[in-house]
Amino acid sequence: MVFFGDTISTDPFYSINYGDGPSLSVATLSTVIDDCIYLLFPEEPQSSSSVEQVPSSTQVAIPSSTVEILISSTVAIPSATPSIPCSQAAPAPPGSTPATLGNAALFTNPQPATYYDTAFGFLGVSEGSLAYAIYDAIAPAQDKLAFYAVPTSPGDAPQGYIYHIDSGLCATGNRTSDTTPVFQHAHLTLQKCNVCGDQPQPEQLFGIFGSDPGYTCAVLLGEYLNNYQNYYAVDYNAGPDPVVTTVGHFEGSCLFLGPAIV
Predict the structure, then answer these.
(1) pLDDT, tens digit (0-9, with 9 covering 90-100), for 25-68
(2) pLDDT (tens digit, 9 = 90+) per residue, 68-95?
(3) How far apart are CA 118 and CA 114, in angstroms?
(4) Largest Cα–Cα distance of the chain, in whole Å?
(5) How many CA atoms lie within 13 A of 157 on its CB side?
(6) Which of 125, 198, 201 is nearest to 164 (CA)?
(7) DSSP 3-state assignment of 218?
């Protein structure tokens, strides 16, 4: 047997340069004909009782420091840890309130996002529908929203998803920059809930910033995981008609969700 390599033909080819011995020496390849790699023809399988076992004391261990492995850029290397299954399907039929959203549990009472004369909602129930936020609203908000909190360390403020019950979708920020602040003046839209891993993706990562008996204040955390020194608040426009809203870094006000479930 010989090595074709880049020749992809029978001539020229690469053959083995054998050392003089008796000590072991590393072999090399050469286009100058030297010798073959000698392989045995396959033999009939033998029963385990007739196969001679090689004593472990005679096995040769190759030090890892002397071995260089070259890996092609086209080879896919499995991750050391298995990927976490993701689900982007609606967790329940639109209009119903699921008990959980991935590993997040229902945290606030499902109800429209209204506080005094403010109103927050979406201009539709399909993927991509934009959010509006106004004050001096004549008609109260109708969209039912709920906060779903993922497990956090004791003492940490709740973090999780804002779920739009009427559509079965999640409030989602659209990135406006590749650098921080990533969601400055971003629109909020309805998208499939990406319940993958232990935390929402930055586009769907919201946090509870405060509450009282009548409402819960939510803000978009985005890339600021576990960092309440930074957040994106909702920009409320003058009503009475719905106006598409954006979120701003330290700009705006709360997204007023229902009170926390006790």
Answers:
(1) 677 776 665 677 665 544 554 444 443 333 333 333 333 333 22
(2) 222 222 223 233 333 345 655 556 788 8
(3) 5
(4) 97
(5) 17
(6) 125
(7) strand
